[in-house]
User: Fold these one by one.
Assistant:
Number 1:
Amino acid sequence: MYILGIHIGHDSTAVLFKDGVFLEAMSEERLSRQKKHAGFPHLTVAYLKEKYQVNTFTEVALVGVELDDTIMITKEDNEAIRKNGISVSNHFLRAVGVKFPLLGSLFNLRDWVLVKVLSFGIKAKVDKFLRTQFPEATITRVEHHLAHAWSVIPFLPDLNKKYLVLTMDGAGDDLSGSVNILDQGQISRKHVTSIHSSVGLLYCAIVDILGMSRNEHEFKVMGLAPYAKVSAGEKVYEKLKKLVWFDHQDLSFKSAINLDRATPYLLAHNFFWHRFDSLAYGIQKLTEESIKEMTLVAINKYQISDVAVAGGVFMNVKANQYVREMSAVKSFSVTPSCGDESLAFGAVMSRYNTLMNGDLSKVKQIDNLYLGSEYSDVEIKKEIDKYDFPNPVKVEYFAPDAAVTIEHKAAEILANNGVVGRFKGRAEWGARALGNRSILANPKSLDNVKLINEMIKGRDFWMPFATSMLYERRNDYLVNAENYLAPYMAITFNTKPLAHTELIAALHPYDLTSRPQMVEKKTNPEYHNLISHFESLTGVGGILNTSFNLHGEPNVENPYDALRTFSLSGLNYLAIGNYLVYKT
């Protein structure tokens, strides 16, 4: 029996599950080419139907967030919400409303009216749409934070253990967090935090003030934080922690203001006078301390020291590091790419649990995220032959069983400080490129950071690249990495002196932390072979890895995307399948 899991909203995603196994997962942005695509995953559902020859689904589990349900129907609904300003408020006018409460009340009334007008008849419209799409299906809606909690299940090594499951994000179904217990495969919710006391939304407000895009550039703020002067950053932190705190009795966050309207409040109270890096420091420290406090209080109350987390706030890899390093935490698991794109996994697990009467013994643990599409050499060569390259290129084929494979050739190019786009095997699901749709470079040369940014990425100067390293070499480079597998770039580590020379281009430029992908031979043998051959040539057991995309676009999905990105960028080498395409 198939179960189709769907998340509707930003980072729209669909996953396919059958008899305990997740067969496929893809976010709609990969096919629509719209980054952080919002809406119903039409293209992904059609792709799954065609690939698995499923004419109709009998079980559909989905997660949708309030008005976000409207944007799954048509583009016009999406534009109506954007134009009427429900999703993005005029923060400066609202800052005036903070100073003058009567005016603020009028703004709130306007929002209430707009919501009522735009949402009129939505439920009937949505239900009709779903019934049209899935006429023979039992359709199950799963509440947002329950789906986040259930999403940890397929990524845990032992479902017979008892886990403390924590969720935190900006908002979902009027909540921003929860404390749960996972016992014998069953999730029981203990405590929740309202949307109005959301640490995640306060983080978004700082993103707004810095002139960045919320729900997209939070990672930039995290990367900027270490550059701040501590004394200046502490002043921001002291201000922010008066706005939100963790209640030890209720095990939930409380706030002095409605954090759903945090941006106008911060503007009205002159937070913009603080330096940009001080603001980043303040909100990053608040987030780290808040998560640590929540974790410790929950551990002490329930006497459970195995911790699993999910939700967009836990995309904050630095905060995850500090939780993992807490002495009270025995084991720590992060749902990979745990933003809203992971909700589809949780929706499936919740529904499967019901169908199986609580028996999750057949659920197969996901040990890698290569859950997307795959293309044969025949399909790749067909795309190469018909692609209209703007500049001359040469194409070479490397047989998989030859003495020199495409992995050997790519490693040689990297060893000579070339930059390679790699497209091979099944696509990674999630926000992080894990080698199969990646741009790779020699991590020993700092010049490669500038080179990659100039040729394709255009990243802000303070932003680090990540490392793909051999699992066998983790203890040579990382502090406190013993007995810990980090295959998904979901957590940072402090680094040892050897990393400061051999992996310097793939570390944070200021604090020298690493956000590693530990590569095991059993999960991706070809990528492991590439890094191993690079090691044999250079002595370095890791490579710089970043996503394979043009600035502002999603990661590449198919051979055409890879060829287009290669052609429009300064990349000179593309290892695509077993072919090497290079500019002459």
Number 2:
Amino acid sequence: MQKILIFLIIAISLFSCNENTKNLKIRENTDIEAFSSISSLQALQNALDDDPDNVEILYKLALWHYHKKEYSKTENYLQKAIIIEPNWKLYLLEAQSKYKSKQFAQSQKSWKEAYRLEPQALPILLFGLQSSIDLKDSILASKLISKTINIYPNNPQVYYWQGRWATTQNDTTEAFSHFTKALSFNPDLVEVYLHISGLYNYHEKSEKAILWAKKGLYLKPKYDSLLLEIAIAYQNLKEIDSAQKYYFKAYQLNNTFYKASYQLGIQAWKAGKYQEALTLFENTYRYKTDLPKINYYIGNCHEFLDKKNLAIDFYKKAIQQEPDNIISRQSLASLQQKIELIRLQRVQDSLFRVQQETERKILEEQQKQNIPN
């Protein structure tokens, strides 16, 4: 058992100490990526049974569960380790785990502890940059950018985050400058290609957006976000078949892409494939309820699938969403009129059946009494 544990720790340490940023993820603690390829949960648990206060083992177990997106278990192991012997790696992983589970205030608290213990560690500075930019903390982001670039002037990830920061400030020129500088240090940073493509899409330079996204796909062929950028670019170019092809690829890899399911749903709806369209629109609605006409499309699919009450509900939502939308109002009025006509027809049919039954009974009674007609 001790041999297994020693092997795990040595191997992870070798991966962690590798200064070559070529294979490092931009958004993660570098230990996490290395750990996943050689981890053995059972070996670590057995090692912990032998030595329950070993901080290194607790940290590796936390890493294992973090990689599996089991954030509650991650934090349980980290808390045990922090009580025994706190260090910056424990606090950093705790910050990352809480960030993933959207506990942003608690994540920031853990990050500050890591930063207090090791204010020049690159993983701490990079995660601080990520979270401050994502959460729009401009003061902290500006401070960390200046500090990080001074300490690590040749690190491509630093320039990547500078580019991200410039993007949030709507400074496109600066963003391009930092992104291209990041690639000059390391041309294999796929995230950079994604954001350059996104910038070109934002400025409606669709051909360049496609070009840069395809450069990224050369490095990572199944990168869902790059496929989505290409789809959006083709959509802007009105090349619908190509757009649908890439929307479908992106959606297959990641069904949380509501833009993809929305556009695929529209095409299915236009083709009269209402059940398929409804499934796609409902997926869109799960993640984004305020897209233009989404309530109308769902209502219309329900109407064609003969689910009239659901159709009425969504037509009403569509009118609330877009009060001036004439199509939604007309569809609601038309469907309500159809329902009323059906109701009146049923009443008429019912009265006719009652009349027939009454006449039948009268006729039977007459026949019994031999009363001539």
